[in-house]
Specification:
Shape of chain B: elongated
Number of strands of chain B: 13
Structural class of chain B: alpha/beta
CATH superfamily of the domain at 323-485 in chain A: Class I glutamine amidotransferase (GATase) domain
Number of helices of chain A: 14
Strand order of the largest sheet of chain B: 8-7-6-9-10-13
Largest interface: A-B, 39 and 56 residues
Oligomer: heterodimer
Number of strands of chain A: 37
Radius of gyration of chain A: 46 Å
Helix content of chain A: 25-40%
Strand content of chain B: 15-25%
Radius of gyration of chain B: 23 Å
Largest sheet of chain A: 8 strands, mixed
Order of helices and strands of chain B: HEEEHEEEHEEHHEHEHEEHEH
C-alpha cells in the first residue's frame, strides 16, 4: 500500500492539519453563541434545559466523525492510494523492437516477422497502465531510440507502426545495454522488453546478459532459409579479360537443401551450379567468365524461400579499360612486343612522317623530334639532343653503374645493375622531375609529372642488352601504369551483407593513402588496425576502398544475417504482462474515495447542516395556522 | 441604520389609488370620505323622521306634507373627517437582530400616511415604547409628505415596551375616537392583551399590524445559546435544538393568534406581516385583504 501523489509523512501531516482545522471549526460552530433577541418569552416557552457551564461532551459527535471521515476519504483520493507493492507505481519501460533484415521474412501467408513483432509490441503498450512511460528503441546492428520516454502511448503506437526492417543483423546486447543506460539515467525502473526473433551473430549469442527486469516477447520464426552470403569477383590472374567469380551460399535452416545457383550478366546466362547444402553449412561455388564488356552480374538461388532478400544479389561489373597508344617509329618492330603483350593497351604504330600532335592517350616518339610537341602524354625514347622535352646535358658512351629508383612506382621492381648500354643521353632535370634511372653523370630516365606527363629515355631499351632482361617489360609496364593508373588499377569486387566490412591490407600500407568513398564520392569513416581496414555501412550501397593501384569495390546489397538464435536469460519474463488489470483497478480507487468523501459531506450537510434548518422552516410554515395565514 | 429614502416615487404613485378604511362610525368634521351612520349636513339622503319643533324647516319634505298632511324631515348622511392615528412601536425589540423590523415599520407607517394625505384624512403618527413619544400630525395633501419623510428618517428606536402604560396615555390624550393603526411586534413581557382591550373598549377602531422577522418566528441557531433580551438585556443560557425550535415556533404562532383574536374581538382588523415580504406585496396584499386599505 502506498501513495502516488504524497508520501506517508506528507499524508499524515496534511490529514492532521485538516483534522485540526475541522475540529476547531466544529467546536467554534458548536460553541455557545450569544444572540440578541426581541424577547425571551418564547424561548422560555420552548422549555429548553439551561446549558451547563462547562461542556463535558461533544455535541453531535457523529457530525464531527462524518466530517473527519469525509476529509480522510477525499485526501486519500487526492493522494491516490494504491493497494499493492511500490513496484506498481508509474514506471519507465524500454521497448526494444528488432528491425534486423531477418524481420522481413514471411512467417505465414503474407505476414512478415516484422508484422508479428509490431502486433506484439502494440499489445504490450496497450497492456500498460496509462501512467507508465515507454521508450521505443529500434534495434538492428545499432540501437536507435525512436521515441523518448512517452506517457502518450499513442505516439509510441505510431512509432511502432512506422517501424520497418533494416538491412543489418541484430546486436541484442548493444540494445540491452542501451536500454539499461536509458533507465539508469531516469532512475525510474520499469521493464526492458525485447520484441523480435532474436537471430544474432555467434559472438553476440555467446555474450552473457544478466538483466533482471527483462521481458521477452518472442516472435516465432520456424522458417527454413537458404541465402547468399557473399559474391567475390576479380580479374583472372592469367587472363585480364576474364573474371573469376566466387559465390558462397548458406543454409540457415534445420534441414538440408538442394539449390541451384544461377549467374546472369546483363540478362544472359553466365553460369549455373547445383549446390547441396546440409543444415547450417556454407558452400562456395566458383565461376569464370570472360568479357571485356560492362554489365550487371546477378546471382540467384532457386527455389526461393520465405526470405527472398538474400536469394539474389547483383553487382555491376566494370568494362576492361584500355589505354590507346600511338607509336611513331620508323622501326616499330623494336617496340611492338612491349605494347602488344598487354591486352589493356591498344597500340597503333605509325611512321614518323605521319605525325600529328592531336593524338589521344599516350604518344610514343622513337628517336624522333616532332615539329610540334604532342598535346597528350608522351614517352620519348632517346630523343635528339636539340629541343628535347627534357634538356640533354651530355651524351655518355658505355655508361656503367645504372641505378634505379625503386622507391618510385616507375622504378618498382627494377634491380638490374649490370645493364650494358652503348651510349645514353644524360638529362638536366628540373625540380619535380623523377629520376627513374641514373648514372654517375646524371639521370638517364626522367619522368616529368603534370597535367601532361612526359617520360624520357636517354637510350633505346630495345637496342641494348636490356632487351633480353626482365627489367625492360617491367619498366614499360611501370611506365604505362604511371601514365594511366586508372586503367591498370587492379579491381576486386564483392557483394556482401550490409554492416561492418573488414578489408585485409598489404603490409606497409600508408593509412593516409587509403581512400574509402561511396559511389557519389562522399567519404566513409574507417579505421585501420594492423593489416585490417574496418568501415561500417548501415544501408545498402557501393563503397570503394582505394589503396594505391588496387581498388576494392564492395556492393553492400545482401542483408546481414545472424547465424544463431539468441537465448534469453533464464530469469527473463516471457509473454504479455498481466499487471495492467491490477494497476487499473487500483487506479479507480481514487474515484471511489472521492465519491465516498463527497457523499459523506453531503450526508453531514443534510443531517446537520443548512438543509436541516431550511426543512425546519418549511415545516413550520406548513404548520402555520390556516386562519392566521389567511388573515396575514 | 439605512439612510436611503424610505419610499421611492414610483411606489408612492401606486399608493395614490388606495384609501384608508374603517368600519365604525365616528363623529367628526364634515368633509371626509368615509360615510357615517350619523345624520347631518351631508349630500347623500339618509332617511325621513317625524318633524319636531325646533327642526330646521329647510329640511322638511314639503312634497310629502302636501300629499300626506304630515311633516317629515329629510335626514342626510354626513361624511366626517375621522382622526387616523398611527401608533408606531419604536422599542428596542423592534431593532433587535438586524433591525429590519424597525426599518420595515417606518416604511409601512410612511406608506399609510401618504395614503391618508392623498385622501385629505386627518392623520398623525406617534412613536411609542413604554409611553408615547412626540408625534407628528399631518394633513392637507400629498405636498405635506416631505416633512413626514424627514420625521421618519430622524426616528430612532429606544425604550422598553409597555403596552398598558402606552394605552393609558393614548386614552387620556386622545379623547376623540378614531382609527388607531398600531404597528408593532406586540412583544411585551407583561402582555399586550390588556392594553389592547382597553383601547378597543374606549371606542377606537383598531387596525393591528403585527411585524416579525424570520429570526423571531424560526430561530436559525442550534446548540448552546446565550440569549440576550434586546430590551431588558436579561440573559438566558440554554440548549436549543430542532425540537425546541418547533416548540418555539408554536408558542410564537399562538401569540400571533391571541393578537389576531383580540383585534377581531374589538371589531378591528389584523394583519400579520413578515419582514421577508416586500412592502408593496404587503400593502396591496395583506392590508387590502384585511380591509385596512382599499
Amino acid at each position: 500500500m502506498f501513495f502516488v501523489n504524497l508520501g506517508l509523512g506528507q499524508f499524515v501531516a496534511i490529514f492532521g492539519a485538516i483534522s485540526a482545522i475541522s475540529v476547531v471549526l466544529y467546536l467554534l460552530d458548536r460553541s455557545r453563541r450569544r444572540v440578541v433577541v426581541s424577547t425571551l418569552k418564547f424561548w422560555v416557552a420552548a422549555e429548553q434545559p439551561t446549558a451547563v457551564v462547562r461542556r463535558k461532551h461533544i455535541s453531535q459527535p457523529f457530525s464531527l466523525f462524518l466530517q473527519l471521515l469525509s476529509m480522510l476519504l477525499l485526501l486519500l483520493a487526492i493522494a491516490q492510494l494504491r493497494i499493492g507493492s511500490q513496484a506498481n507505481q508509474t514506471r519507465q519501460h524500454v521497448l526494444i523492437i528488432e528491425t534486423s533484415a531477418w524481420m522481413n521474412a514471411r512467417s505465414s501467408g503474407r505476414k512478415t516477422l516484422m508484422d508479428s513483432a509490431r502486433d506484439r509490441a502494440r499489445a504490450y503498450v496497450n497492456a500498460l497502465p496509462a501512467s507508465d512511460q515507454v521508450m521505443l528503441v529500434r534495434a538492428d546492428s545499432l540501437a536507435t531510440p525512436a521515441t523518448a520516454f512517452e506517457s502518450n502511448h499513442a505516439k509510441v503506437l505510431a512509432a511502432i507502426t512506422a517501424t520497418v526492417p533494416g538491412s543489418t543483423s541484430l546486436n541484442v546486447h548493444q540494445a540491452l545495454n542501451f536500454a539499461r543506460q536509458m533507465q539508469a539515467n531516469t532512475g525510474q525502473y520499469g521493464e526492458v522488453v525485447f520484441v523480435g526473433s532474436g537471430r544474432v551473430s555467434e559472438a553476440d549469442a555467446a555474450e552473457a546478459s544478466d538483466m533482471k527486469n527483462l521481458r521477452v516477447l518472442a516472435v516465432t520464426d520456424p522458417i527454413e532459409n537458404t541465402g547468399l552470403r557473399k559474391i567475390g569477383i576479380k580479374r583472372s590472374n592469367t587472363n585480364p579479360e576474364a573474371w573469376d567469380i566466387y559465390v558462397s551460399a548458406k543454409n540457415y535452416g534445420s534441414r538440408s537443401k538442394q539449390v541451384t545457383l544461377t549467374l546472369t550478366l546483363g540478362g544472359l546466362p553466365a553460369g549455373s551450379q547445383r549446390l547441396d547444402l546440409p543444415a547450417g553449412t556454407e558452400k562456395e561455388a566458383t565461376f569464370a567468365y570472360r568479357t571485356r564488356a560492362a554489365g550487371v552480374l546477378q546471382a540467384r538461388l532457386t527455389p526461393g524461400d520465405a526470405f527472398p532478400d538474400d536469394d539474389r544479389a547483383s553487382i555491376e561489373l566494370p568494362p576492361l579499360a584500355t589505354l590507346p597508344v600511338v607509336v611513331y617509329s620508323n622501326d616499330p618492330e623494336l617496340l611492338r612486343p612491349f605494347f602488344a603483350a598487354n591486352p589493356q593497351v591498344t597500340a597503333v604504330f605509325k611512321p614518323t612522317a605521319q605525325y600529328v600532335n592531336t593524338d589521344k592517350g599516350l604518344v610514343v616518339l622513337d628517336r624522333f623530334l616532332p615539329p610540334s610537341r604532342p598535346t597528350a602524354d608522351s614517352m620519348w625514347i632517346d630523343p635528339p639532343s636539340n629541343n628535347s622535352p627534357i634538356p640533354i646535358k651530355q651524351r655518355v658512351q658505355k655508361p656503367e653503374g645504372v641505378r634505379w629508383d625503386s622507391d618510385n612506382a616507375l622504378g618498382a621492381g627494377l634491380r638490374t645493375r649490370d645493364v650494358h648500354i652503348d651510349s645514353t643521353s644524360v638529362f638536366n632535370t628540373a625540380p619535380g622531375d623523377i629520376k627513374v634511372a641514373e648514372i654517375d653523370a646524371g639521370p638517364i630516365i626522367v619522368a616529368r609529372p603534370g597535367a601532361v606527363k612526359t617520360l624520357a629515355f636517354g637510350f633505346h631499351p630495345a637496342l641494348t642488352s636490356m632487351r633480353y632482361e626482365l627489367a625492360t617489360p617491367l619498366l614499360f609496364a611501370n611506365s604505362l601504369r604511371w601514365f594511366a593508373p586508372d586503367v591498370f588499377r587492379s579491381k576486386e569486387l564483392s557483394t556482401q551483407p550490409v554492416g561492418t566490412v573488414n578489408v585485409a591490407l598489404d603490409s606497409g600500407v600508408d593509412p593516409a593513402a587509403l581512400r574509402v568513398v561511396r559511389e557519389d564520392g562522399t567519404p566513409v569513416p574507417f579505421t585501420v588496425e594492423g593489416k585490417s581496414l574496418h568501415f561500417y555501412s548501415g544501408a545498402p550501397g557501393v563503397v570503394r576502398v582505394v589503396n594505391g593501384d588496387h581498388e576494392s569495390i564492395y556492393s553492400l546489397s545482401l542483408p546481414e544475417m545472424g547465424d544463431t538464435k539468441w537465448k534469453a536469460p533464464a530469469g527473463a519474463k516471457k509473454g504479455l504482462p498481466s499487471f495492467r488489470e491490477n494497476i487499473q483497478s487500483v487506479h479507480d480507487t481514487w474515484r471511489i474515495f472521492a465519491i465516498l468523501g463527497g457523499l459523506g459531506l453531503l450526508i453531514e450537510w443534510i443531517l446537520y447542516g443548512r438543509l436541516e434548518r431550511v426543512m425546519v422552516r418549511a415545516r413550520n410554515l406548513l404548520r402555520w395556522p390556516a386562519g392566521l395565514r389567511k388573515a396575514s | 441604520m439605512d439612510e436611503s429614502p424610505l419610499l421611492d416615487r414610483h411606489f408612492l404613485e401606486k399608493l395614490e389609488r388606495l384609501t384608508i378604511h374603517w368600519g365604525k362610525s365616528f363623529p367628526g368634521l364634515v368633509g371626509g370620505h368615509n360615510p357615517s351612520r350619523f345624520a347631518g349636513g351631508g349630500q347623500e339622503f339618509l332617511d325621513h323622521r317625524q318633524f319636531h319643533q325646533g327642526d330646521d324647516l329647510r329640511s322638511v319634505n314639503w312634497r310629502a306634507y302636501m300629499r300626506l298632511d304630515k311633516m317629515f324631515l329629510k335626514m342626510f348622511q354626513i361624511e366626517p373627517r375621522v382622526p387616523v392615528r398611527i401608533l408606531l412601536d419604536t422599542s428596542l425589540s423592534m431593532a433587535a437582530g438586524d433591525g429590519s423590523k424597525f426599518s420595515y415599520a417606518r416604511k409601512l407607517a410612511a406608506s399609510l400616511i401618504y395614503v391618508g394625505l392623498v385622501r385629505h384624512d386627518m392623520i398623525s403618527v406617534y412613536p411609542f415604547a413604554s409611553h408615547l413619544k412626540e408625534g407628528k400630525k399631518t394633513g392637507g395633501g400629498r405636498q405635506r409628505f416631505t416633512s413626514t419623510m424627514d420625521y421618519f428618517q430622524a426616528l430612532k428606536p429606544g425604550g422598553v415596551t409597555d403596552f398598558v402604560g402606552m394605552v393609558r396615555e393614548v386614552i387620556t390624550t386622545f379623547t376623540q375616537r378614531g382609527l388607531i393603526i398600531l404597528i408593532s411586534d406586540f412583544l411585551d413581557d407583561a402582555g399586550v392583551e390588556k392594553g389592547l382591550q382597553y383601547l378597543g373598549d374606549f371606542g377606537h377602531e383598531l387596525f393591528l399590524i403585527q411585524l416579525w422577522n424570520e429570526e423571531d418566528r424560526t430561530p436559525p441557531w442550534t446548540g448552546e445559546l446565550e440569549l440576550e433580551d434586546g430590551e431588558t438585556n436579561q440573559i438566558v443560557k440554554l440548549q436549543f435544538d430542532d425540537e425546541a425550535r418547533v416548540r418555539y415556533t408554536k408558542a410564537f404562532d399562538e401569540h400571533c393568534e391571541v393578537v389576531r383574536q383580540l383585534a377581531f374581538r374589538t371589531g378591528g382588523k389584523y394583519a400579520g406581516v413578515s419582514t421577508a415580504q416586500p412592502i408593496e406585496d404587503v400593502i396591496f396584499g395583506s392590508l387590502v385583504r384585511s380591509r385596512g386599505v382599499a
